UniProtKB/TrEMBL annotation:
InterPro entries according to UniProt: Glyco_trans_1 (IPR001296), Glyco_trans_4-like_N (IPR028098), HAD-like_sf (IPR036412), HAD_sf (IPR023214), SPP-like_dom (IPR006380), SPS (IPR044161), Sucrose_P_synth_Pase-like_dom (IPR012821), SucroseP_synth_GlycoTrfase_dom (IPR012822)
UniProt protein name: sucrose-phosphate synthase
UniProt-listed Pfam families: Glyco_transf_4, Glycos_transf_1, S6PP
GO MF: glycosyltransferase activity
Lineage of the species this protein comes from: Bacteria, Pseudomonadati, Pseudomonadota, Gammaproteobacteria, Methylococcales
Organism field: Methylomonas rosea
Length: 712
């Protein structure tokens, strides 16, 4: 029986790692990471919690301890509702960093979140990741727990890369600034492993997801975000007397004229400079309406990040160039609570809301403005196509065509009957298509089938009886790590024998069990407490060599070896290894780099064939394919939970590609020096991974001293 069947209520975990997330006064527009996604996940958590058969919602994000931001973000737990809460998980530096700098810390985030999940009374029913970084974490947690994964991308790396190249940036510049290859790899992996992909629009599927190798329309569902219709509603009698309305008087000569409102982050992609130029070039538009640009909050432009600083500086220069003083408002501050008042102020002035972004993944601001009674003019690229198509409340334009933008605005401003029709259409159809009630009902309907065929690992696996008081462990790979220097090996073996009473000893290898036992005997290595063999697909407990059947059952999920052999069998440069190197859950080839396709192409092929696998190239010549849920690192974490040993009390050592996820994350990771350690060079910037100067067992001994391991 699955654990969640003990109750009729669902437990949903939402993961959204970056940005500043809290349940009140969201700092929308503060930076590029704190925008629509942060609002979406908070509103989604609250809306799901209101559903009668949802028992608990946890919104997981990163904990931030930083004097430059509110102390709210340092609180480990924040209540959103009686059955919903924000949980903040530590990962990486305490301070606030932008999402592009989070990649090296996501393995640690995943380990810390897994530990938190284990501390809870029950497993949740489902994981729902948001954006690529959360997808990276969600895939790992899904593999480790057996929980189904739902993913919402919000925006996609391949589409972003395509547009950045069109703007003139080089791939080198894009990679350096955005770590775009890591993001795209994470997105491909997430698309391959998620059970359901939720998108906001059909356009998102057809124009963005189709760029991916794992493009699978059958598992994608369009569920538009909702709008809080209690907060966003048409103007009331006191709208014109709001505090924000008063603040505009210092900018505008005729504040009672209709307003054209643009509200977004000061981001180049939002294209608000082009909007201001279009306004400045049209005396007719200036005679018809004021322009109000709400571009985040600022105290001193000079202290803002480079992107925001550039956009705001350009706005001021354009404003001055066209001498638009008294006709354009560029307020410095607004609160999240004032946003609804701003929309209503525009609607009461018979004005228009415009989103001139180069591309807009969805467009929550369009829904909010429409729910407040504003007609829309919006970019034709992305989500607005669906929103205006459903609501019939505005005009789509080419955001780079200033004449088209101007004409669309004037066509509404010049025609009061059209303005009224568009406003009424928006009010009626936003309530029909874009309420949170409709969103959560559709979400839960899509979720139900996923819960029927998933078997979770036991939440608290049985702890081994023998040696359960040992609270440390050393796990090491064999070839080119532990083995290779007889004198160093002798020193290491003596140390293991000395510390055996307080420290577990484990071997994690790509070799089969029989080969490992022969090597241990030949080199007089004491039998380990735990053997992880065949690249993490088999786990054995000493001294009786008891196989962990639960682990075998867990990793068998979606494993199709016959299909895999058929797909790879025709590729040049791949030669099957002898049967003694193969096993039930490991298919192994010799890899000839002169003839075989690059690993990137092999990975693309596997994804296109929808094969749920984990391929690894070790020592530059051995290609092993195992189930997606199997690896040395995943097996190590399973064992650590069984023995109740914290990951930061485990020394994990390796020297080739197959050791990557074992030495990263929260373990005391070690890469010993050898000619194959360059396969792990991508870990060199991670503080928690130690690159030893010495090779083989000497490198392990060096790392034990580096970590002062036996005094942790």
């Amino acid at each position: 029986m699955r654990e969640h069947e003990t109750t009729e209520y669902l437990h949903i975990v939402l993961i959204s790692i970056h940005g500043l997330i809290r349940g009140h006064c969201l700092e929308l527009g503060r930076d590029a990471d704190t925008g629509g996604q942060t609002k979406y996940v908070v509103e989604l958590a609250k809306a799901l919690a209101k559903q009668s058969h949802v028992g608990r919602v946890d919104l997981i994000t990163r904990r931030i301890v930083d004097s430059e931001v509110s102390a709210d973000y340092a609180e480990a737990v924040e209540a959103l509702a009686e059955n919903a809460q924000i949980i903040r998980i530590d990962a990486g530096p305490e301070g606030y960093i932008r999402k592009e700098e989070l990649w090296d810390h996501l393995d640690s985030f995943a380990d810390n979140l897994l530990s938190w999940l284990h501390s809870q009374p029950h497993w949740p029913d489902v994981l729902h990741s948001h954006y690529a970084d959360a997808g990276y974490v969600g895939v790992r947690l899904s593999h480790l727990t057996g929980l189904p994964l739902i993913h919402t991308g919000h925006s996609l790396g391949r589409d972003k890369c395509r547009r950045l190249l069109a703007w003139g940036l080089t791939m080198e510049e894009i990679e350096q600034r955005y770590h775009i290859s890591r993001r795209i790899d994470a997105e491909e992996d997430t698309l391959s492993n998620a059970e359901l992909i939720i998108t906001s629009t059909r356009n998102e599927i057809e124009d963005q997801y189709e760029l991916y190798n794992c493009y699978t329309p059958e598992k994608m569902a369009v569920i538009p975000p909702g709008t809080d219709l209690d907060q966003f509603h048409p103007p009331t009698a006191d709208t014109a007397s709001s505090a924000f309305a008063a603040s505009l008087n210092k900018f505008l000569y005729q504040p009672d004229m209709p307003m054209i409102l643009a509200l977004s982050r000061p981001d180049e992609r939002k294209n608000i400079v082009t909007l201001l130029e279009a306004y400045g070039e049209s005396p007719r538009l200036q005679a018809k309406a004021n322009l109000v640009i709400v571009a985040g909050n600022r105290d001193d432009i000079r202290e803002m990040n480079e992107g925001a600083q550039g956009v705001l500086t350009e706005l001021l220069l354009v404003l001055d160039c066209y001498d638009l003083y008294g006709q354009v408002a560029l307020p410095k501050h607004h609160s999240a609570e004032e946003v609804a008042d701003i929309y209503r102020l525009v609607a009461s002035s018979k004005g228009i809301f415009i989103n001139p972004a180069l591309t807009e993944p969805f467009g929550l601001t369009l829904l909010e403005a429409a729910a407040s009674g504003c007609p829309l003019v919006a970019t034709e690229n992305g989500g607005p196509f669906d929103i205006i198509g459903n609501c019939h409340n505005g005009i789509l334009v080419d955001p780079l065509d200033k004449a088209a933008v101007t004409e669309a605005l004037l066509s509404i401003l010049d025609n009061p009957d059209l303005w009224r029709t568009l406003s009424e259409n928006g009010l009626r159809n936003v309530a029909r298509y874009y309420s949170w009630e409709a969103h959560t009902q559709a979400f839960l309907q899509k979720l139900q089938p996923l819960l029927q065929h998933f078997e979770r690992l036991p939440k608290t696996p049985p702890v081994a009886r023998t040696g359960r008081l040992r609270k440390q462990a050393i796990f090491t790979a064999l070839d080119n790590t532990l083995l290779g220097d007889d004198q160093g090996l002798e020193q290491f073996v003596n140390l293991i024998r000395e510390k055996r009473r307080k420290c577990l000893f484990g071997i994690a290898t790509g070799r089969r069990l029989d080969a490992v036992l022969a090597i241990l005997k030949q080199n007089r290595i004491p039998r380990p407490d735990i053997l992880i063999t065949s690249l993490g697909t088999e786990i054995y407990f000493m001294p009786q060599l008891i196989a962990d059947i639960a682990w075998s059952y867990h990793i068998d999920h979606l494993w199709t070896p016959q299909v895999l052999r058929r797909v790879l069998g025709s590729l040049p440069g791949l030669t099957p290894q002898p049967k003694r190197e193969q096993s039930r859950f490991k298919i192994s080839y010799y890899y000839d780099s002169q003839l075989a396709p690059p690993m990137e192409e092999i990975l693309t092929l596997l994804r296109q064939k929808e094969l749920s696998v984990n391929p690894t190239l070790s020592f530059g010549q051995f290609l092993d394919i195992v189930p997606a849920r199997a690896s040395k690192g995943q097996a190590l974490r399973y064992v650590a939970q069984q023995w109740n040993i914290p990951l930061d009390h485990i020394l994990a050592t390796g020297g080739s590609g197959g050791d990557c996820d074992m030495v990263s994350g929260n373990t005391c990771g070690v890469v010993v020096a050898n000619r194959h350690s360059e396969e792990l060079s991508n870990l060199s910037d991670m503080e928690q991974v130690y690159f030893a100067e010495q090779s083989n067992a000497w490198g392990i001994l060096e790392a034990i001293e580096h970590y002062d391991f036996f005094h942790l």
